[in-house]
Amino acid sequence: MSAALTVRGLVAGYDRSVVIDGLDLEVADGATAVVIGPNGHGKTTLLRAVSGLIKPFRGEVELGGERIDGMAAEAIAKKGVVHVMQGDGLFVEMTVEENLLMGAFPGGSWRGRRAALKRVYSELPAVEERKGHKARTLSGGERRLVGLGRGMMRQGRLLLIDEPSLGLAPVAIEAVYAVIRRLRSEASSAIVLIEENFTHVGGVADVVHILEAGRIVRSGPFAELAADRTVVETYLGSIAEAPS
Known about the structure:
The structure is a single chain. The protein is α/β, with parallel strands linked by helices. The chain has a domain at 1-71 and 190-244: Rossmann fold (3-Layer(aba) Sandwich), CATH 3.40.50.300. The chain contains nine helices and ten strands. The strands form two sheets. The chain has a six-stranded mixed β-sheet, sandwiched between helices. Helix 3 (96-102) packs parallel to helix 6 (140-151) and helix 6 packs parallel to helix 7 (170-186).
């Protein structure tokens, strides 16, 4: 199976501060890779470096074998990288539907925006119910669903999702992960999902990577890492059973 994303020797951070330090990562086409680790160890920085929101200091990032490190974020988005940011990144004074349509601007997606909206509303009826409301009026779970819906507005080659469960109530987390499971089942794009712990990822992860101090320190199937008491106690906290 070919690689959708390849990261080699990535060094990235902010100003003169290195956060990602020599990281290597490969994600196969159609696969879902979950990156787990403590806060402040580089998970969000990794996604920002891949999507072009920050420029790497050194290293290589390839999308389907093509170098994209150093490109502007807009150019990377046009090549099919969709970044669902931590906390959703909605435009609070726009309506839900206006926020969704923002996801159809890159590349040639605008022509298919109506069909894409129909798909999003079919998958996320709760979002359709709120389509005329300003984003600032939404609950945390609703905002996260709109953020995912905006990511669904175009057919990406690589979907980056940053801590979708952060700060949400359990019922909202289940709604968000139900959407992620559906996206994974379509297998039309590779997914890199960031979370702080193992609690919700068992039903979506093809492989789990543990990130510490800017590097991947352990990788393997969910079941293998979840069964390793040392890994659980050191990095991951409690584990919920994977959805059936």
